[in-house]
User: Which sequence fits this backbone?
């Protein structure tokens, strides 16, 4: 019998809708199972159910979670409390809120132990040492606020492993971290599981991350495991159409790929469900898929798949030939930034930044958090005062602040924000938000406004009826499209995209990127700010790398990715995880 | 929907998709804008309705009361004399000089019925202007406005009222102005606090970058997003001003004889509490009902707001 066995686990909410639907898995000690899926697929609920816990309003309705022969779901009271952390430990997504800011590292970790106080310090030290943190008393006295994000995540890991659990459940532990930090944390997780013979369930929406760390991968959709197999098999030869679609949405740093969006909307929760959960979005669906209960097919190699298909779903052709830079040889720049410097009262964030975006060109501005990317974008749009330098759009010099610019200058350069959840006023319908842009910047009035709004929504492939909705009623991807529509009604010459896909799922990211690619082909110039190198590779013509407020390298993407010159670029590239399937195609 | 994306945030997606997501997808007809507005949400709450009905009944009581008074509330002649317990023709007895308590009760609410809402509305309006302007401009403007509010807050209100009433005389408008001055700083602080985080919201940044005038940003981007705390403040301040105005009357600095209100009724008859408790208890009771009604309403609104904010 495997060390961890989950049998027919189900979690439901009040009306009987299943968030986790009949999930079974087996895991040996020392093995890592990766669980991937989009938002709302039930990943986090599954993670918590492993600790015999369900969020308020949800309930574990059936199944077994056997860890070392003990059923977690049968425990109550004190034995259950001891088993959470003692047997199954949990590492949450955001270490900044998981750690108590008022407790020292030492208190934080020793709190989870049950040993007598005098025996705890060596265990704390051992846990810290195994996550690669110092064990000096000065460090132990620090509070979480004095640590970096990566260190905080390591402390959270140390807290989880200190009591010596048999199973580690990690819920998107690297989502908020930089690629470099992420790479180190992933390496650490793999090492810990190996050394301590700990089984782990690693949950992420990022297939590349999971592929890097896991031995086995389970693909989750609509609360079910639609496919489970070895990491290599799932990423290179997926058997379920959904797994295939997820892989097709992943960008690569090696070559320019078209990103496949998954049509339709993620499966909602319904008390009664008929047929396959993926039926409505599946391109290979057959008639019976919508009616029959789809059982699990056991493959000869031990893999399981919930699909009627007997052959692997075909991969979509995705490679795009690197086209010539449309701006090559252009005499004028769409956007020209000369020796820009900016910062806050006491420290300078940007030093002597110069860059240029040609007409019809997409230039990526790459850097990790804190490198000054957002400050630069805000300087360009006129939200942040600059200390020195010039900004020109098609030769027209822009004043530092938006209110000093003419209406036409404000129209020429449009900004799309990182957070789609706050870029539209929640108390105004989507249509009204776009109409405000038309009235103030688009120059239209009267009935022409509504026509412009409808045209913009159509251009971003949103149904016109959405104009009547409030942002809260839209999905993340729809909101981002609405924000793009609001920028487009102004008929800008340059579009600034600030991390526009970082808050979105991979499949949604794919659809937004393809939308932007379409706009580029229509001749729009774009400055694409991001930390995601693979996205850069799939859309940008040139890339500029920003480190600590200075530009360290700038080159056409083909060259930059083939032969990065600056050590910082090399490090970024080396730490970017790559899905073998996407790269090797 | 040709190309569509995924509902975000797992926890919400679970409930949202179950509650509205799937249903909204199936039926394109969404509820009207009014039905989805904050005010409609607040009014749908049972608690708010109960409080609102109570408050409205008290206001109607105060407005219609004077016309229903069976006797002249200021004419003791023909009565049974002072501090007389309930008798035939005087169902609530008489007060310290022999006036009919029922008639005085019915006629004594009219001042409160306009002064309390007037104070509450004015204070919330001024407070909202100060709070939003301070939050929007920040820096020196913020500092000056908020320090001004602190200065107002530092004056002990009672001393303030005694001073001005002694100087100007007990005019109803003066009482409203004084109560407003007492409440504006509190409202301004709350609404500034609610408006501050909006400054960094992307939709406000967009509006700034688009060059939309400051007044319009404050009215169209800020105001709708502080609407909820604003409604809560309105209920709270209504409650507070009823209490404040009644207290001022009780202390003798409000409405002056021969005019009267519920507050002065308590003050006038308090010496006869043992022989004729009705003369004091009944005005206390109506003040309590009025205050509790507006309190239930304000608290209900606050609950709805807290729930709505979580959904967005």
Assistant:
């Amino acid at each position: 019998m495997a060390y961890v066995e989950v049998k027919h686990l189900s979690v439901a909410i009040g009306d009987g809708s299943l968030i986790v639907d009949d999930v079974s898995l087996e895991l040996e000690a020392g093995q890592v199972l990766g669980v991937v899926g989009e938002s709302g697929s039930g990943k986090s609920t599954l993670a918590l159910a492993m600790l015999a816990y369900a969020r308020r309003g949800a309930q574990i309705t059936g199944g077994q979670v056997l860890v070392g022969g003990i059923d977690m779901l049968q425990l109550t009271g004190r034995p259950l409390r001891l088993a959470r952390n003692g047997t199954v430990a949990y590492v949450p997504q955001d270490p900044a809120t998981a750690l108590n800011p008022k407790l020292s590292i030492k208190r934080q970790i020793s709190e989870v132990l049950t040993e007598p106080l005098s025996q705890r310090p060596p265990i704390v030290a051992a846990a810290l040492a195994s996550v690669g943190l110092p064990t000096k008393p000065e460090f132990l006295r620090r509070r979480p606020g004095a640590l970096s994000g990566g260190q905080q995540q390591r402390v959270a890991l140390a807290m989880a492993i200190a009591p010596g659990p048999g199973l580690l459940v990690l819920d998107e532990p690297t989502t908020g971290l930089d690629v470099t930090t992420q790479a180190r944390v992933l390496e650490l997780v793999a090492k810990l599981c190996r050394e301590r013979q700990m089984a782990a369930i690693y949950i992420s929406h990022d297939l590349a991350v999971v592929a890097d760390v896991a031995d086995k991968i389970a693909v989750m959709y609509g609360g079910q495991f639609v496919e489970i197999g070895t990491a290599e098999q799932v990423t290179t030869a997926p058997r379920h159409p959904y797994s295939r679609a997820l892989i097709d949405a992943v960008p690569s740093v090696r070559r320019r790929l078209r990103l496949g969006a998954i049509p339709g909307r993620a499966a909602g929760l319904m008390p009664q469900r008929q047929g396959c959960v993926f039926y409505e979005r599946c391109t290979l669906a057959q008639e019976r898929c919508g009616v029959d209960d789809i059982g699990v097919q056991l493959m000869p190699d031990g893999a399981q798949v919930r699909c009627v298909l007997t052959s692997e779903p075909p991969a979509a052709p995705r490679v795009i030939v690197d086209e010539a830079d449309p701006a090559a040889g252009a005499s004028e720049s769409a956007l020209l930034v000369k020796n820009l410097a900016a910062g806050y009262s006491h420290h300078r964030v940007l030093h002597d930044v110069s860059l240029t975006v040609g007409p019809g060109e997409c230039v990526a501005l790459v850097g990790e958090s804190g490198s000054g990317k957002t400050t630069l974008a805000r300087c360009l749009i006129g939200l942040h005062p600059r200390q020195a330098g010039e900004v020109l759009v098609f030769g027209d010099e822009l004043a530092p602040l938006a209110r000093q610019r003419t209406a036409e200058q404000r129209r020429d350069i449009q900004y799309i924000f990182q957070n789609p959840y706050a870029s539209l006023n929640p108390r105004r319908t989507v249509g009204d938000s776009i109409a405000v842009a038309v009235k103030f910047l688009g120059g239209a009035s009267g009935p022409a406004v509504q026509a412009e709004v409808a045209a913009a929504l159509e251009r971003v492939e949103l149904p016109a009826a959405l104009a009547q909705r409030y942002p809260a009623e839209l999905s993340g991807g729809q909101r981002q499209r609405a924000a793009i529509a609001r920028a487009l009604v102004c008929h800008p010459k340059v579009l600034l995209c600030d991390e526009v896909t970082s808050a979105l799922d991979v499949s949604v990211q794919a659809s937004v990127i393809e939308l932007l690619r379409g706009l580029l082909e229509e001749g729009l110039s774009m400055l694409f700010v991001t930390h995601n190198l693979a996205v850069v590779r799939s859309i940008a013509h040139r890339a500029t790398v920003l480190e600590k407020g200075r530009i360290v390298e700038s080159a056409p993407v083909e060259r930059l990715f083939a032969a990065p010159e600056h050590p910082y670029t090399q490090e970024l590239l080396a730490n970017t995880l790559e899905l073998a399937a996407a790269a090797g195609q | 929907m040709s190309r569509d994306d995924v509902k975000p945030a797992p926890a919400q997606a679970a409930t949202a998709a179950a509650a509205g997501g799937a249903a909204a997808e199936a039926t394109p007809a969404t509820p009207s804008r009014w039905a989805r507005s904050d005010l409609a949400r607040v009014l749908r709450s049972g608690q708010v309705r109960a409080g609102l009905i109570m408050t409205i009944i008290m206001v109607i009581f105060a407005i219609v009361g004077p016309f229903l008074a069976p006797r002249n509330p200021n004419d003791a002649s023909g009565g049974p004399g002072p501090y007389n317990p309930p008798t035939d023709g005087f169902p609530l007895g008489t007060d310290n000089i022999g006036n009919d308590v029922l008639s005085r009760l019915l006629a004594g609410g009219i001042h409160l019925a306009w002064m309390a809402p007037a104070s509450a509305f004015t204070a919330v309006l001024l407070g909202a202007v100060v709070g939003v302007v301070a939050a929007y401009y920040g820096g020196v403007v913020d500092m000056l406005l908020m320090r001004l509010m602190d200065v107002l807050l530092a004056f002990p209100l009672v001393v303030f009222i005694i001073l001005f009433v002694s100087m100007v005389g007990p005019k109803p408008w003066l009482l409203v102005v004084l109560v407003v001055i007492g409440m504006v700083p509190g409202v301004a602080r709350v609404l500034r606090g609610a408006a501050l985080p909006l400054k960094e919201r992307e939709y406000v940044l967009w509006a700034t970058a688009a060059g939309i005038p400051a007044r319009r940003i404050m009215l169209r981007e800020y105001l709708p997003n502080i609407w909820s705390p604003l409604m809560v403040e309105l209920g709270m301040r209504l409650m507070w001003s009823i209490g404040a105005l009644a207290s001022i009357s009780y202390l003798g600095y409000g409405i002056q004889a021969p005019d009267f209100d519920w507050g002065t009724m308590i003050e006038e008859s308090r010496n006869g509490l043992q022989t004729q408790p009705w003369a004091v208890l009944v005005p206390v009771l109506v003040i309590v009902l009025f205050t509790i009604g507006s309190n239930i309403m304000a608290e209900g609104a606050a609950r709805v707001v807290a729930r709505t904010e979580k959904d967005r």
